[in-house]
Amino acid sequence: MRSDPAREADAANRAAARQVLDRPWGDFLTALQQARPDDIALLTLEADARRGQFSLTAEAPDYPAMIAYYGTLRDTAGLREVVLAQHGYREDGQARPARFVLRGRWAEAVATEGEEK
Question: Can you tell me whether residue 60 is helix, strand or coil?
Answer without folding.
Answer: strand
